[in-house]
Structure formats: C-alpha cells, structure tokens
Amino acid sequence: MPRPKKCRKVCHLPHTAEFRPVNNRSHKFVVLTVDEYEAVRLIDKEGFSQEQCGEYMQIARTTVQQIYASARYKLALALVDGMAIKISGGDYELCDGKESICGCGGCHRHRN
What we know:
Blueprint lengths: L7 E3 L7 E2 L9 E4 L1 H12 L4 H8 L3 H21 L2 E4 L4 E3 L13 H4 L1
Helix pairs in contact: 1-3, 2-3
C-alpha cells in the first residue's frame, strides 16, 4: 500500500488561473497543479534552491524535484505545442498566516 501524500504548503493561490496563446483556437490545455505552480514560483521567481523550497512547502527535496520536473515538462509542452495552461487541483494547503516569518516573503497575510 503506498504512503499517503502529504499536503504541500502554498503561500497563496495564483492571481490568474488560465493562460492562453493569442492564436489558440484549440480546446486542448495543460493542467498545472497549484503545488507545481508554487514550486516554479519559489524556485524560478523567488530564487529558492530546491532544498529551501522543500523546507518552505514542508516536503522532502526529492519530492520538490519530482513536482518541479513535472511542472517544467507541462510548461514546455504548452509552449512548444501552443496549448493553454490551466492552474488547478493538487495536494496543497494554504498558508494559515500564523507563522512569525513567511519563508518566501510573499505571503499576503504578512504583507498587510
């Protein structure tokens, strides 16, 4: 029996949940999960290492590697094949705002 999945901590949901190429008339799209989105945001935008990302999301570094690789594959597929990207689903829980310091500095609950 496989081990149950741990929920991944996510700072906030994306402001935009769907991206579509201008000339896309197809109904094909790639689904990027919220935890994949968060891994890409933390590593590529915030400059976290995979180890720091794992600490923040409260998962193992190897799990971060798997999530990040999956996200990059989906992003490449969408860019190369001109498909839309939809962000939804995944195993995650939102930041509860009870931490004294947000690991990424991007938590909206700590900015206000």
